[in-house]
Design brief:
mainly alpha
Length: 146
């Protein structure tokens, strides 16, 4: 028996997509207001590199759920802005590892503060127990589909 608690036409992806888009738009506005020359897509790549730099473009694809051409384009643009650098792998010449520059490390504190501020605004009136349930449910949905 299906466990769909939504009325016909109310799909999970529309609800989560709307919320995700609203958060991304608000964060992009904050980046623009702070004169950070950074898109949300570029920031998501930097975010994963701040957690662990020196990873391959394929690992960035996996971490960001983007395809290879998208990551290549994003890394190209980040490299042009002097925010990342590609370093050939010592063990496999076909692989480039992506490292942060000092300039991108300086962006980390300011952009992460703006991201935290945006999430706090988004969750301002949501009770903590509801946030926990939402995280749990979305993780189960993800696990069911991977």
């Amino acid at each position: 028996m299906p466990n769909n608690q939504f009325k016909k036409g109310e799909l999970y992806s529309f609800i989560t997509g709307k919320a995700s888009t609203a958060i991304a738009r608000r964060l992009q506005k904050k980046f623009n207001s702070a004169s950070l020359n950074l898109t949300i897509e570029q920031w998501s790549v930097l975010y994963h590199l701040w957690k662990q730099e020196g990873i391959s473009q394929q690992e960035l694809c996996n971490a960001t759920f983007r395809d290879k051409p998208s990551i290549t384009r994003l890394v190209d643009n980040l490299e042009k802005q002097n925010l990342v650098k590609r370093v050939p792998s010592e063990t496999d010449r076909r692989i480039n590892l992506i490292y942060l520059t000092k300039q991108s490390q300086k962006l980390q504190e300011e952009s992460m503060a703006l991201a935290e501020e945006t999430l706090n605004e988004a969750l301002e009136t949501v009770p903590a127990d509801k946030i926990d349930v939402c995280k749990e449910v979305l993780q189960i949905v993800y696990d069911n589909l991977k």
